[in-house]
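Posting for a labmate who doesn't have an account.
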Amino acid sequence: MIATSAGVLASGIANVFNLDNYLHYGLFAFFSTLCVYNGQRVVKATLETKTRWLDWVSKHRKLVTVLSIVSGLLGGYFFILLLNNISPMITILMGGAIIISFYYVVRIGSKNLRELPHLKAHLIALTWTGIIVVFPIVNENIHNWEILLVFIPVHYLYFVAVSIPFDIRDLKYDSPSQRTIPQVVGVQNAKIISIALLMLVLVSLGIVSSFSMSTPLFVFAILMQILLIAYCTEKHRDFYYTILIDGTIALLGVSYLTK
């Protein structure tokens, strides 16, 4: 579901830029996310089997590994298909995303990146913003300062906001030393921060482009996320997060496709 959300959202954002190849951006994001997500689960399954999903991955490691490799090859294919030029910015962007994705679960010494204090939500937001938002802008050589100065930071805040409920879900697994937002401020305050950020995203895009307020599906997707976050707890099953909350990310992407 995470890969689907990434693909739909990438397609939608690329569509906002009026790109003819917006579906290719979505397929690149979809297969790249599927590769990274499954690859990370294979690594985590060798280190821990705390959840039913990781236990399933541990028992089907070869299948998940093959899926990750095939997805990576397809993601690479669409990246090459999309690539207009090999600029230093794209090299830094993709290199940074690969390094973060790899060391997010692979330890450097005794810790991996996700275990470093205060970084978890920001690493996710940085990677998703880079791949889904910044890559199309740089690759298509878009020079619209309204987009660069508002669209990028607003979506960064959006990804931070939607990562917070997943940190609430992971409270029973994360080490206290990670200092995630729910660990630092508590569950209720973390939900308030997440909801406030989503409202800021809605209002900011509405002020700058009027897109959000004039697109009912966009508003509905944000309001659904706010409602789901307001009622989320660490006791909810994975379905609540991976299908419902993650699904509204895909719904937001669909709203961009209606532009």
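Reply:
Got it, the structure tokens are right above this. The mean pLDDT is 87.
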